[in-house]
Design a protein that fits this description.
Layout: E1 4-7, E2 12-15, E3 25-30, H1 41-59, E4 63-70, H2 90-98, H3 102-119, E5 127-130, H4 135-147, E6 151-154, E7 157-160, H5 162-167, E8 200-204, E9 222-224, H6 228-238, E10 242-248, H7 255-267, E11 273-279, E12 282-284, H8 299-304, H9 309-317, E13 325-327, H10 329-348, H11 357-368, H12 373-385, H13 391-405, H14 419-433, H15 437-449, E14 452-457, E15 460-465
Parallel strand pairs: 3-4, 3-10, 4-5, 10-11, 12-13
Antiparallel strand pairs: 1-2, 6-7, 7-8, 8-9, 14-15
Helix pairs in contact: 2-3, 4-6, 4-7, 6-7, 9-10, 11-12, 12-13, 14-15
Length: 466
């Protein structure tokens, strides 16, 4: 079976064919976080999806040329109110709340994001691209759009001209129903905009305010709009057209359609990106997640409850990326229990062996089917339970699966068990072999009273800390 993805652009599952089918290098870009606050479990689902795609491409023999942006300027609070060109810059708002400057805010939350990224065992992209480090590229792109007749200047900045874009035969809003939306549902519309769909490419700094983050441009001091960074940085790294763009489904409404319009308007090349892949929303206790609701949980919250962040990764994998997923603490604890079971099985297996081709083919077919991770996990359990597969081959095959699943099997090590506990386990095993069940039970009780558990396996007793 060939690798297939659901393409939001064509709205169907279709075989993945790179733009250059003779080249095994795939251009991949994921929209990353705005680094003004801690990343939530909803955001982490999207970044895990980007990692899953990169891993799958490599599993299928491609080289993933992978980049992710970090938005550290230009993302305005009006994005939550119906118009992303209004409101405060999130960095400027956070600096007042925390008593730091905007650069310090960006540095702190970028480091926190990078730490969480490692804890979830997400493979590092070629680079994390910061908007503030690519201002010249963004200014150049805005100038191209002005030169091509797809932008205009008004009082507060430079805006993209959607009507002019459509007049040249381009279609605006392929990923959504933007031609039907009514912008500014909860904000005052900008009367200078030619069309409610027009969006800011460059915003001028307010005359009465000195921002921490602002730059000189041909049109005046200001800062880039939210959307322009992704076009400028992705095209700089991956070319004017590339293969796959990833993001959460919330970005289908404005951010990604605007990326497409400004990129194609600047280069004249269609399509900007061949395949758009979007992950579904994460619910919390069956409802909406939000900071104001107090349920925008973070990795810090997960660790505070004694849960391994990789249990969150396992939780995501248990549902298809295009299906809504409901986060509850009970569900996450269940994922941790399942993860511990697979870890225990893996550690019981002896090293060596070869990948079982039958199971590898099953696993590959399920991953190739639009990243069907629930069935991929089921394949893993089927392998573990198959008595006809040698233990050494099971271990090799699980390691092969983990190239995609990313559960960290290769880094697993048995905990150092105190010598006295190990001695008790050996004594208990001897009692079991002699069928002295009373002694065996007493020794098990003594082991458990000291904070350890013992499990009987085909390869002997396995002792773990509770």
């Amino acid at each position: 079976m060939a690798l297939e993805f659901y393409n939001s652009l064509t709205k169907k599952v279709e075989p993945f064919v790179p733009l250059d089918p003779d080249n095994k290098t795939v251009g991949l870009y994921t929209c990353g976080p705005t680094v003004y606050s801690y990343v939530t479990v909803g955001n982490w689902r999207t970044y895990t999806l980007g990692d899953l795609i990169a891993r799958t491409l490599r599993y299928e023999g491609y080289k993933a040329n992978y980049y992710m942006n970090l938005t550290d300027v230009g993302h305005l609070t009006g994005d939550n109110e119906g118009d992303a060109d209004t409101g405060e810059d999130r960095m400027e708002k956070a600096k007042r709340k925390e008593g730091k400057n905007a650069w310090e805010i960006a540095e702190f939350y970028t480091k926190d994001f990078e730490n969480g990224y490692k804890k979830l065992n997400l493979t590092a992209p070629n680079a994390f691209l910061k908007a503030t480090e690519h201002i010249p590229e963004q200014i150049t792109l805005v100038q191209k759009l002005l030169n091509n007749g797809f932008a205009y200047q008004i009082g507060d900045g430079i805006y993209f001209d959607t009507a002019a874009y459509e007049a040249k035969g381009y279609r605006y809003g392929e990923l959504s129903n933007l031609d039907h939306i009514k912008a500014g549902a909860r904000v005052e519309l900008n009367p200078e905009k030619k069309d409610i769909r027009d969006f800011a490419l460059w915003k001028f700094s307010p005359s009465n305010e000195k921002r921490d983050m602002e730059w000189e441009s041909p049109w005046g001091v200001g800062f880039p709009g939210w959307h322009i960074e992704c076009s400028a940085m992705s095209m700089q790294c991956l070319g004017e057209q590339f293969d796959i763009h990833v993001g959460g489904e919330d970005l289908k409404s404005t951010h990604h359609p605007n990326e497409i319009a400004q990129s194609q308007g600047a280069t004249g090349k269609v399509p900007f990106v061949q395949c758009w892949i979007h992950g579904a929303f994460l619910l919390v206790d069956g409802g909406r997640m939000g900071k104001s609701l107090g349920n925008a949980y973070t990795i810090q919250d997960i660790e505070a409850k004694g849960i391994n962040p990789l249990a969150l990764r396992f939780f995501y994998l248990g549902s298809h990326y295009r299906s809504q997923l409901n986060f509850t603490w009970e569900a996450l604890e269940g994922a941790q229990a399942a993860l511990k079971r697979i870890y225990a099985h893996y550690l019981e297996l002896p090293p060596g062996g070869i990948v079982n081709e039958k199971y590898r083919a099953i696993f590959a077919s399920r991953i190739e089917d639009d990243l069907n991770t629930p069935l991929a996990l089921a394949t893993m359990w089927e392998l573990v339970k198959d008595a006809d597969i040698p233990s050494v081959d099971k271990k090799a095959t699980l390691l092969d699966f983990d190239r995609v699943l990313g559960l960290g099997l290769a880094e697993l090590k048995r905990e150092d068990i105190p010598a006295e506990i190990t001695a008790l386990a050996h004594a208990r095993e001897q009692a079991r072999q002699e069928k002295d069940w009373t002694c065996s039970d007493e020794l098990r009780g003594e082991i458990e009273s000291q904070g350890y558990t013992v499990k009987d396996t085909d390869n002997g007793p396995v002792v773990e800390k509770k």
